[in-house]
Amino acid sequence: MRHVIALDVGGTGMKAALAGPEGEVLYRARRATGREQGPDAVVAGILDFAAELHAYGAEHLGTPASAAGLAVPGIVDEVRGVAAYAANLGWRDVPLRTLLAERLGVPVALGHDVRTGGLAEGRVGAGRGTDRFLFVALGTGIAGAIGVDGRVEAGAHGFAGEIGHIVVRPGGTACPCGQRGCLERFASAAAVSEAWAAASGTPGADAADCAKAVDAGDARALAVWRQAVDALADGLVTALTLLDPRTLIIGGGLAEAGETLFRPLREAIRQRITFQKQPSLVPAALGDAAGCLGAGLLAWDLLDHTDRTEVTP
Fold first, then answer.
1. Taking residues 108-117, what's their average pLDDT?
2. What is the CATH number of the domain that holds 141?
3. Which residues pair with residue 92 across a beta bridge?
4. Rounded to whole angstroms, how far apart are CA atoms 122 and 8?
């Protein structure tokens, strides 16, 4: 059966699949990223894992993969196929697309992990059927994906969608990016965890604990949560003003709080907009499978110039 390789590389683990022409998952696998062994070992592990997937497909599905899609963290130059920078993996200007194409002998698409996950959410997940969407992931940091007519915009230099670095509190907390007051320093899951650990006096307390305390009516938790929601609404309204999406999809760890997050966030956005149209605000639907599914979509998109039954690497 015709299929592609889909591989989502994270800071600690890799999720992979062999995906059919309609996006159906034919095989799944996982493996540790191995970052403790250094950046060269991580790259070698990716290439070896992909080669094993390629061999599995040839043996069990009757034909080798027609293409591969690879989603990676950090700054990605999708035009050149280069992982430009990823602090947690120690990468700088790694030509992953070329390396993987040479190893497998098939075309390879390389994408930023959040943009790739956003592609899946927009096309087959929570945004299915919408023409314009903004996907925002609230995790350790905050990043986004700008969707237009079934594709995601990477930008001229691969930086499109970096909503976490909109300055919402000028002169505020320093950010590793070099600015002060960035959105992700106030409204990411990591930021809420840090604020709640300090407010509660409980080292190790996280954003999920804060959400539970909010539901229980804890005044300290409500103050932490309100600060995060207000900052997030400020950043999102800036994005809405620029992009005018029809659907706003929120994912990542903080979104797991459900209506504890979405109810006050909808209201905070409503209070801030004037001429702008409030988009539909929905939770992401695909969970941690989004990046892998999106990588498969990237791979199939490479084959759109064919009938998906033949390809020349």
1. 94
2. 3.30.420.40
3. 85
4. 17
**189-200 vs 207-215: helix crossing angle, rounded to 10:** 60
167 shares a domain with 29: no
**Whole-prediction pTM value?**
0.91
Pair of tokens at residue 87 = 């602090």
- Number of independent structural domains in the chain: 2
Instruction: Assess if residue 122 is contained within a domain.
Output: no
DSSP element (H, E) containing 305: none
Residue 209, SS3 per DSSP? helix
- The domain in which residue 96 lies consists of 4-116+289-302
- Per-residue pLDDT band at 313 (split at 50, 70, 90): very low
pLDDT > 70 in the chain, percent: 97
Q: What does DSSP assign to residue 265?
A: H
Residue 312 lies in a domain: no
310 pLDDT higher than 90: no
Residue found under tokens 């539901």:
215
Q: Please tell me whether residues 276 and 136 are part of one structural domain.
A: yes
Alpha helices in the chain (DSSP H): 39-60, 96-104, 113-124, 184-187, 189-200, 207-215, 219-243, 259-272, 290-302
